[in-house]
Design goal:
The protein is mainly α. It folds into two domains: 75 residues, no CATH class; 41 residues, no CATH class. The protein is built from six helices and no strands. Helix 3 packs antiparallel against helix 4. The longest helix has 20 residues. It is globular.
Length: 118
Amino acid sequence: MSTNQIKQMLSDIESELRQKIGAHPDIQAKLMDKHNYSLCELIEIMTQAHLCDNPLFFKLMQLDAACCQLDIGLYGVCSDCESEIEAELLVANPLEQRCLSCTSQYKREHRQELRLNH
């Protein structure tokens, strides 16, 4: 996949996310102040609105990470082991941050963490 194709996919995801976030009742009023919030500003607004557990927040964080990785030439590199993320994972989810092996490990650890917290 070319850099331009990746940029277009991330841009499409960003547009969709901005629409969904803009429709969220807890932050609609805040977003009316200004129309061109950066991803970092949107993350801060959602944090201030105590929406860090919202799935939109997680997706926004993944989008911000993917955009940063693309900017520095590390898009498609696993955030844990730094190996290449499998192409089929990136096709399925352009915001993927981990390779298959590290994703499995992360999910196992996260499940264990959830068990310990309950």
